[in-house]
Specification:
Elements lengths: L1 H13 L1 H26 L3 H23 L9 H16 L1 H11 L2 H8 L2 H11 L10 H22 L26 H28 L3 H23 L12 H28 L1 H5 L2 H15 L6 H44 L3 H8 L4
Helix pairs in contact: 2-11, 2-13, 3-10, 3-11, 4-9, 4-10, 5-9, 6-8, 7-9, 8-14, 10-11, 13-14
InterPro entries: EamA_dom, EmrE-like, WAT1-related
Main location: membrane
Membrane topology: Multi-pass membrane protein
Length: 367
């Protein structure tokens, strides 16, 4: 029994980044439903972004201050400017463009484009040499195939419907229908969607560089939330002149803000920063399509929405592509560890060998 528990704990430690990223995607899944209900209730998306990141910053601040007091680097002007750009890419610019494009297009189009972030990040990482591709090696081929297969699965889920599955025999548990109006403008909406994907991909890549100079994930999360909230507030004041939009009651608007701030902008962002430092930005983004699959499944069982066969086929393809990429990256880590282990073994063998020169010098009486 004790041996089984020990093996289980060792397995959890080994796959800790994988488990955390799956939990992060589950968090994003519930975010989709609670924010949709809040927006249908009448909350302004840009006000939501501002409040959400203020809440996240206030919650994480005490943990960052006390837990990282000894490891937190000094904040220089150059480093603050870097965090400012990082916050703009991850919060102030990207999220506001994302929600603006949601009003101008439709969720299906947005999902199909947003889920290409993993592929965009992978390409940018190769260009910046954060990822090394060796097509003569099986692990290099696996990473390329995994990215392409996952992208194919995403496109299958969003562009191919197929037969409709039979609705569950029970009534929908939750009803999120509202009176929100969608004003389509596909040209501007498409530009905003693609731009938000590009900026978010750059944000994931930039995290890897910033963490090298500021290796305090909690403090970096706090700074990004406060700076991003300030940036979003400035933008919201420009586009929204009504004071009533800033007022929220003790209802779904309040709870969606708390959930988005504490769970998503707080815990999940910290998890992503930690996993980025451990595994790299490509590893983090490859889990994003899982939330699309989870949303489709949960919407079918809980909301009574239609579920198409294409979603199931695409989900299976996504999981296959994700497995290929993770296998390739796992092999990369083993390849990086083995040379170090071989070097240590060689040093140990050298130390065991008798020092003939020293013995001769001792016999001659020389030091």
């Amino acid at each position: 029994m004790a041996k089984a528990v020990t093996s289980f704990v060792a397995g959890c430690r080994r796959f800790q980044p994988h488990i955390l990223m799956v939990l992060a995607q589950i968090g994003y899944t519930f975010l989709y439903f609670i924010t949709q209900a809040s927006f249908n209730h009448g909350m302004n998306p840009h006000v939501y972004i501002t409040y959400r990141h203020i809440v996240a910053g206030l919650v994480i601040l005490p943990f960052a201050y006390f837990l990282e007091k000894k490891i937190r680097p000094k904040l220089t002007v150059a480093l603050f400017l870097e965090i400012f750009v990082l916050s703009l890419l991850g919060v102030g610019l990207t999220l506001n463009m994302y929600f603006a494009s949601l009003k101008l297009t439709n969720p299906s189009f947005l999902a199909s484009v947003v889920n290409t972030i993993a592929s965009l990040t992978f390409v940018i990482a190769i260009i910046l040499r954060l990822e090394v591709i060796d097509l003569h090696n099986p692990r290099g081929i696996a990473k390329v195939l995994g990215t392409l297969v996952s992208l194919a699965g995403v496109m299958t889920m969003t562009l191919y419907k197929g037969p409709i599955l039979k609705n569950p025999p029970w009534h929908p548990i939750v009803n999120l229908k509202g009176n929100s109006e969608i004003q389509e403008d596909w040209v501007i909406g498409s530009i905003l969607t693609v731009a938000s994907c590009i900026t978010l991909s750059i944000w994931y890549i930039m995290q890897a560089y910033t963490l090298k100079r500021y290796p305090a994930q909690l403090s970096l999360t706090t700074w990004m939330n406060f700076v991003g909230a300030a940036q979003s507030a400035v933008y919201t004041v420009i586009v929204q002149h009504k004071r009533a939009a800033w007022t929220i009651g003790f209802d779904i608007d309040f709870w969606s803000t708390i959930y988005g701030g504490v769970v998503i902008s707080g815990i999940v962002i910290f998890i992503q920063l930690w996993c980025t430092e451990q595994k790299g930005p490509v590893f983090v983004t490859m889990f994003n399509p899982l939330s699309t699959l989870l949303v489709a499944i949960l919407a079918y069982f809980a909301l009574g929405e239609k579920l198409y066969a294409g979603s199931i086929v695409g989900g299976v393809v996504i999981i296959l592509g994700l497995y290929l990429l993770l296998w390739g990256k796992e092999a990369d880590q083993k390849a990086q560890i083995n040379p170090n282990e071989e070097g240590i073994q060689q040093q140990a063998e050298e130390m065991k060998k008798p020092n003939i020169t020293a013995d001769l010098d001792f016999q001659k009486g020389e030091p």
